[in-house]
Write a structure and sequence with these properties.
Elements lengths: L1 E5 L6 E5 L4 E5 L3 H12 L3 E5 L43 H4 L22 H14 L6 E2 L2 E9 L3 E8 L4 E6 L1 E4 L6 E2 L13 E4 L13 E5 L3 H11 L4 E5 L9 E2 L6 E4 L2 E4 L4 E4 L4 E3 L2 E4 L3 E2 L5 E2 L5 E3 L2 E3 L14 E3 L8 H17 L7 H17 L14 H12 L6 H16 L11 H15 L1
Parallel strand pairs: 3-4, 3-9, 4-5, 6-21, 9-24, 11-19, 12-13, 12-19, 13-15
Antiparallel strand pairs: 1-2, 6-7, 7-8, 10-20, 14-15, 16-17, 17-18, 22-23
Helix pairs in contact: 1-5, 5-7, 8-9
The structure holds flavin-adenine dinucleotide.
EC number: 1.-.-.-
Family: Belongs to the FMO family.
InterPro entries: FAD/NAD-bd_sf, Flavin_mOase, Flavin_mOase-like, FMO-like
Length: 457
């Protein structure tokens, strides 16, 4: 592939040979789909290996749950999606969608035109995206990657398994990992839990409230899912106790608007007689402990001889959360950061990866990238940020996005999107019951709609 690339110093355009690589993308969720699109746009040959029989990853809702409801048994059948039936997005459509393929209701027959739609609408959007950009033809369905390892000439051997247990080895120049990180449950450590007789489960396996009819449920966590699920369950359960690590130890509050939800600090211990003791001294006889305690990064197929490790949920070392310096740009990860707007972030990371693989963009030297990673880790440590928060980008996601965009030579995150995200985040905290149906950022919606015309007309 040969493309004209203007140099900065000379007025004459220089013709640089850009390279087309054979690239394997692992996973056809929101990250893998946009990675495939960007890689192909850049001229690479792309195969997307997807273990499911359809695209969408997280957004493919299934009523099925795993055989081990708490998700500890390594031999359990893995279900990718963690969606519950009532789930509506926690971001408005305008913010959530890819930058050049807005998440608007495209078909008149749209089943869910709400601004914070249900999960089926997101699944439909991703399917439309895949159809629009012809991504299906790159995807190999029902093909699970079981091993990725380096072979001679710095190439990658990717071993995959089909539905009929046929194994296939293939050689690629580069591998882009897009396997998602909301599937491997992380659970809370509770003293005495081994002899507690109740039922434990993780929110990964929560689908509908009915099984909790008349039960006493303790829900651990205060993330977006915990906020939704405790309200979902409160409609049928006898009592719901929310144990949160981010409240003071003496907390004991009834949830506003509910007469059967109470907020507590963390659990101190669980006892053989079925009771659970909270740090505020309260004791509750409970039927179920539901861990809404997040997920772990998990790459069971990745064999880098220790070059990339997961240590206390820090995947590293990774330059800018994407490239392991020693293996860059031949191995990369899309969509690792959390507390972000994932679709546009994955879109920008994918452009960056595609450009670095072709040679259109250049990374710093291995040593410089490693120095950058070390400096980043030191900064986190000096600020007292635990390692497990390494990929939490809450406070700087848009700076990160914009820096990627600058390197790729493409537009950064729109001003309205940043403002809308900040406004919604505040509303979600202040008014969790109503933020999805009541808003006042009409001016920003108008700005977004004007912006979208260039992609939808
Ligand atoms: P996934 O969607 O998990 O996709 C990974 C894909 O990789 C899957 O298709 C999987 O089958 C495949 N795969 C995995 N392992 C292999 C393998 N070994 N071989 C082959 N294929 C493999 N984001 C928002 O923007 N708005 C929201 O409102 C929102 N709500 C959320 C609610 C919940 C409960 C959860 C869990 C997440 C939510 N998110 C939300 C974040 C969401 O995860 C991202 O939006 C996005 O879907 C992540 O996409 P992904 O491609 O990184 O991962």
């Amino acid at each position: 592939m040969v493309n004209p690339v203007p140099t900065i110093q000379s007025n004459l355009p220089t013709i640089l040979p850009l390279h087309s690589r054979n690239v394997a993308v692992i996973g056809a969720g929101a990250a893998g789909l946009v990675a495939a699109r960007e890689l192909r746009r850049e001229g690479h040959k792309v195969v997307v290996l997807e273990k499911d029989n359809q695209i969408g990853g997280t957004w493919v809702y299934t009523p099925r749950v795993e055989t081990d409801p708490i998700g500890l048994d390594p031999g359990r059948e893995i279900i990718q999606s963690s969606l519950y039936s009532s789930l509506r997005t926690n971001l408005p459509r305008e913010v959530m969608g890819y930058m050049d393929y807005p998440f608007v209701s495209r078909n008149r027959g749209s089943v869910d035109p709400r601004r914070f739609p249900g999960h089926m609408e997101v699944s439909k959007y991703l399917k439309e995206f895949a159809r629009h950009f012809g991504i299906h033809e790159m995807v190999r369905y029902e093909t699970e990657v079981v091993n990725v390892g380096l072979v001679e000439n710095n190439k990658w051997k990717v071993r995959s398994k089909t539905r009929h247990d046929c194994y296939n080895d293939e050689i690629y120049d580069a591998v882009v990992v897009c396997n998602g990180h909301y599937t491997e449950p992380r659970i809370a450590d509770i003293p005495g839990i081994d002899s507690w007789p109740g039922k434990q489960m993780h929110s990964h396996n929560y689908r509908v409230p009915e099984p909790f009819q008349d039960q006493v449920v303790i829900l651990i966590g205060n993330s977006a899912s915990a906020v939704d699920i405790c309200r979902d369950i409160a409609g049928v359960a006898k009592e719901v106790y929310v144990a949160s690590r981010s409240v003071a130890d003496e907390t004991y509050e009834k949830q506003l608007g509910y007469d059967n939800i109470w907020l507590h600090p963390m659990i101190e211990s669980a006892r053989e007689d079925g009771t659970v003791v909270f740090r505020n001294g309260n004791v509750v006889l409970a039927d179920v402990i539901l861990h809404c305690t997040g997920y772990k990064y998990h790459f069971p197929f990745l064999d880098t001889n220790g070059t990339v490790t997961v240590d206390d949920n820090c995947v590293g070392p990774l330059y800018k959360h994407v490239f392991p310096p020693v293996l860059a740009p031949w191995l990369s990860f899309v969509g690792l950061p959390w507390k972000v707007v994932p679709f546009p972030l994955s879109e920008l990371q994918s452009k960056w990866i595609a450009g670095n693989l072709s040679g259109r963009l250049a990374l710093p030297s291995q040593e410089e990238m490693m120095e950058d990673v070390k400096a980043f880790y030191s900064k986190l440590e000096d600020s007292g940020i635990p390692k497990r928060y390494t990929h939490n980008m809450d406070s700087y996601q848009f700076d990160y996005d914009d820096r990627l965009a600058e390197q790729c030579g493409c537009p950064g995150i729109e001003k309205w999107r940043k403002q809308m995200y900040n406004a919604v985040s505040k509303k979600r905290r202040d008014r969790p019951e109503t933020y999805r149906d009541e808003w006042d950022d009409h001016d920003l919606i108008l700005e977004a709609e004007e912006d979208f015309i260039k992609y939808t007309s």
